[in-house]
């Protein structure tokens, strides 16, 4: 029989302390009398959650699990461990694996690996085009109809830059309520690009990645989405101009959603002056003006969600000169802390807002019915307990990821995930994998 | 001086003046029958060149040898970018050989910075040109050449002097280092280029910019022409080589608008007929060959100051007699 958990004195979404009873995979009761609820045959564990906040299990719409193909960087097993430790109960695994997740076979493999790992649910993202090559559509329908039930399609890492192909993709996924998650990067404007284009890129002699290369694609895709009446999700929005474009599209009633990554909410391009490629990421770290605009956009709902873009890389791909290094940084285990620091502690979002941006909205966009549910009686017991008063210094070596490329090593961050429950089963207890 | 020379910005005004004064002492050596000092005897200087640059490499080699250092030339073809040996492994190899200074030329901006700050090597690192970032010893030899001609070889001699740097600023490490160093030395720098060859954000640099060479030339005390690489012509940065030459090339007619004392410089290698015509390059105003001579003296000064502390070179030179 499964273990029953009685969580005492927990602040649900930061509200008044109450008790939560997790039993048989669901939230069996809420309130001061929750503990009195009928006995279960299995073991019953009481958790004193005084000072802890309960949030719905987090949902990441943008994770790189690297399996199949780059098991030296991450596996479904290791990546979902990191996810659970970060408070996630569901992650969307990006398609840029080897082989690319562009067939029903590959997405079902990733989906199955996630089920076997059991640390969190894995929802594979399907590639938009065969081999991410941007030439012809992958079998989107086959992936949608597969056991993995793919609804999010993305060539992430590559932009679907061909306007006709993007139009067709947006049109085609309407048949199964899919969404195209676009990596917005105009390829010609970013040939050889290494960092945000600005005064600093000129000074450092690193080829610039101009904001306009992102904004031009987002603007085009918003217009295409409106034209064909489909659904667009914009990955890792990084510039103030992009926030404006998305805000305008939403005002017009177009079906456009957008995500921001934790690192773009905290870090700026000044870090490139170290030439340490731990700070190399795509899209690149931008200016403080962009950071402020992203935070404001996330606060007012222009940016719907936070997504990690967790991107593990082996040590040798970062222990080199900047231009030779891979793009990307770890994110799953630090995302909630960064959101607390940049959004909650600054007064821009309350915990209900965090639940919306990191659980409800990403689940809605991904059409995941089982996650992103409110903490209410009868709902699936996907819950994270979080201690916002804790402080911790990030040690790269302590990550559950197989990779070590966290840009936060040595930084003190607020907050700590104390426990994560997936359908009533603890995946993390006392800050450690259960 | 700091332990490494990675950027012209690493040099304070005092540091830069000290390098110039030390280089002046070193240059006087060239006129003596024995051109060698024992200053760095027993020290090892490694020239680590990931890019071909015979002229910079032999300049550093001559400088180190004249200071009696042991010199190892390491032509590391293929950085990790081309799946050869990684920068890190190359560095560890040099460290194991006991290098006191590593002079590094690399195609990637910031590679010398990584070498100096990643804990791979303990030696001093001298940037001999990295990507499109910097080339600080080139800036020092350029400043030294100006200082001899325009500054009377005295401290503060470049204060208020007007320097025009003309050409592909966007891709030029020489322009970056010169802009920083000349500003440190009090000179006023104007960068002249077509708008496509100036970096975004240049408004934040401590320089003036102009798209119009003809308006800048009559005011300049020194004009430095930058090389325009062949590949830029195919990158769409300007329509044709001929149009570039017409608008930004230095020919005899333009040279005639210069003040009498104005010198013409070029870091080499020149593309004669493109950014500079042969009659200008070979004219009395041209100090291009002298720049090469000064390069050895300046690099001697840099290696000496980095490896043997901050004592004035003068005392050491006199002690040698």
Task: Walk me through what this model shows.
The complex is a heterodimer of chains A (434) and B (321). In chain A, 27% of the residues lie in helices and 22% in strands. Chain A is an alpha/beta fold and 434 residues long. Chain A folds into 2 domains: 4-53 and 378-433, Urease, subunit C, domain 1 (Roll); 57-365, Alpha-Beta Barrel (TIM Barrel), CATH 3.20.20.140. In chain A, strand 18 and strand 19 form a beta hairpin. In chain A, helix 4 (163-172) packs across helix 6 and helix 7 (240-251) packs parallel to helix 9. Chain A is globular. By secondary structure, chain B is an alpha/beta fold. In chain B, strand 5, helix 6 (173-184) and strand 6 (188-192) form a beta-alpha-beta unit. Chain B is globular, with a radius of gyration of 19 Å. The relative contact order of chain B is 0.17. Chains A and B meet through helix 5 of A and helix 4 of B.
Supply the key terms.
heterodimer, A: 434 residues, alpha/beta, Urease, subunit C, domain 1, TIM Barrel, 11 helices, 19 strands, 22% strand, B: 321 residues, Rossmann fold, five-stranded parallel beta sheet, 13 helices, 9 strands, disordered C terminus
DSSP helix count of chain A?
A: 11
Main beta sheet of chain B: 5 strands, parallel
Instruction: State the end-to-end CA separation of chain A.
Output: 17 Å
Strand proportion of chain B: 5-15%
Supply the helix-strand structural class of chain A. Answer: alpha/beta
CATH superfamily name of the largest domain in chain A? Metal-dependent hydrolases
Individual helix count of chain B: 13
Integer-rounded radius of gyration of chain A: 21 Å
Topology:
The complex is a heterodimer of chains A (434) and B (321).
Chain A: E1 4-12, E2 17-23, E3 26-30, E4 44-48, E5 53-56, E6 58-63, H1 76-85, E7 88-93, H2 104-117, E8 121-124, H3 140-145, E9 152-153, H4 163-172, E10 179-182, E11 195-196, H5 199-204, E12 208-209, H6 211-228, E13 232-234, H7 240-251, E14 256-260, H8 262-266, H9 288-300, E15 305-306, H10 335-344, H11 351-365, E16 383-393, E17 412-422, E18 425-429, E19 432-433
Parallel strand pairs in A: 1-4, 1-5, 6-7, 7-8, 9-10, 10-13, 11-12, 13-14, 14-15
Antiparallel strand pairs in A: 1-2, 2-3, 5-16, 16-17, 17-18, 18-19
Helix pairs in contact in A: 1-2, 4-6, 6-7, 7-9
Chain B: H1 13-29, E1 44-49, H2 54-66, E2 70-75, H3 87-97, E3 101-106, H4 111-117, E4 124-130, H5 136-150, E5 162-166, H6 173-184, E6 188-192, E7 208-210, H7 213-216, E8 222-225, H8 230-234, H9 241-248, H10 252-255, E9 263-265, H11 278-281, H12 288-307, H13 313-319
Parallel strand pairs in B: 1-2, 1-3, 3-4, 5-6, 5-8, 6-7, 8-9
Helix pairs in contact in B: 1-5, 1-12, 2-12, 5-6, 5-12
